[in-house]
């Protein structure tokens, strides 16, 4: 297994790479283009962007110039909060698709559960799915309560929920809820934006396996059956973050890393996001 071949099967049968490249805060232009090309060279076949990141055009350009067939790359983008609503989302989708320069987007996500809006937005995602414009649809930053509410009106169940997930925020209940409902959990900020790399058990376990702390953190998400999208714009780190298929964490390692949980977020809790 390698970063190029390891996938998880979504509820509708679509294969989604287990590890992808996140590009939040990767600047449009040279920075993100170099990151995407380095990732594709290193074997990554999944890129996670969003209209909010302002770099979709550069991501699309890098893919087109990479020499890797666009069909082989799993592309995720997201509808931002001020683009939500039924018609607004359909329009936002077309803008994203045009910038990315692809016919079909693999995974389209509702970026945050905007109160009073996300159900209508979901209707638009269902339409895009029915029309064959996206291969899978999902949500991001949804709690189990948001998912319960959504499922009351959904014709198509979300296939993915992308949430903040790392050892300091081991959302075990949400993970179990998603597993019960066949919703694939996907981890954002898997490295705690770098803050988790120095945590004691992470360093120690990395040394034990002859691996890097970032690789241990990526592997921890994988051991929990969670898809993960570490971000880097540094070619050596991008390559190194992909080398997570030649070792495994044992029960003792997992217990030590799980012990870091303190329900601590680096980002917003979905109920406290400044929506307006
Ligand atoms: N849905 C959402 O609301 C949401 C929110 C946040 C993030 N996300 C997604 O999740 C992705 C990942 O999260 P994130 O970008 O917030 O943080 P992250 O992946 O946890 O951490 C990225 C940081 O770690 C550094 N880094 C990466 N690999 C490293 C290594 N091997 N050694 C040392 N440092 C390393 C990067 O530096 P350099 O880049 O300088 O190398 C960067 O500063 C995002 O890019 C985005 O796609 C989604």
From TrEMBL:
GO terms of molecular function: oxidoreductase activity, acting on the CH-OH group of donors, NAD or NADP as acceptor
Domain NADP-dependent oxidoreductase: 30-262
InterPro entries linked: AKR, Aldo/ket_reductase_CS, NAD(P)_OxRdtase_dom_sf, NADP_OxRdtase_dom
Coiled-coil regions listed in the entry: none
Superkingdom of origin organism: Bacteria
List of catalytic residues: 53 (proton donor)
Presence of keyword Oxidoreductase: yes
Cross-referenced Gene3D superfamilies: NADP-dependent oxidoreductase domain
Binding site residues for substrate: 111
Site (Lowers pKa of active site Tyr): 78
Keyword annotations of the record: NADP, Oxidoreductase
Protein family per UniProt: Belongs to the aldo/keto reductase family.
Protein's UniProt name: Aldo/keto reductase
Organism annotation: Salibacterium halotolerans
Lineage, opening ranks: Bacteria, Bacillati, Bacillota, Bacilli, Bacillales
